[in-house]
Amino acid sequence: MRKYFRIVVAVFVSVLLINSCKTQKKVVYEFPEAMSKPIQEQYAVMCEKGRVLYDLNCAGCHNKKVKGKTIIPDFTEEELGAYSIRMANAVHEENVSEARVSAEELNLITYFLTYKPRNKK
C-alpha cells in the first residue's frame, strides 16, 4: 500500500511540474545590440537565476497586481545601485541581509532587473 501511495504521489508531482513548465512564459531579455550573441546567452542564464532569486526574496514586497497581471517594477540605475551596496533600510537590512542574500545572488537579481523587459507605460 505504501509503495502504491508513493508511486501515485510521484506521478502527481511529475504532472504538476510538467504543467508548470509548460505554462511559464520564457522571458526575452533586452540586451544592448552591441552585446555579442554568446555574451547575451551567458547573461540570459544569469538573468534567469536572478529571476528565481527575485521571486524568492523580493517579489513579495515589490511586485504589484494590475488587472490580474503581475507587474515587476522598473528600477532605475540609482535604485539598483543602492540595493547593491545594501543602503541602510530597516526592512532590507532584515530581508536582504548578507545572511539571506549573498553579494553574488544580489548581483544576479540586479542583472535580472536590469535586462528584464520594461513595463509599458
UniProtKB/TrEMBL annotation:
Keywords: Heme, Iron, Metal-binding
MF terms (GO), sorted A to Z: electron transfer activity; heme binding
Entries under InterPro entries matching the protein: Cyt_c-like_dom (IPR009056), Cyt_c-like_dom_sf (IPR036909)
Domain Cytochrome c: 48-77
One Pfam family hit: Cytochrom_C
Gene3D superfamilies reported for this sequence: Cytochrome c-like domain
Heme recorded as keyword: yes
Name of the protein in question: Cytochrome c domain-containing protein
Organism: Cytophaga hutchinsonii (strain ATCC 33406 / DSM 1761 / CIP 103989 / NBRC 15051 / NCIMB 9469 / D465)
Lineage: Bacteria, Pseudomonadati, Bacteroidota, Cytophagia, Cytophagales
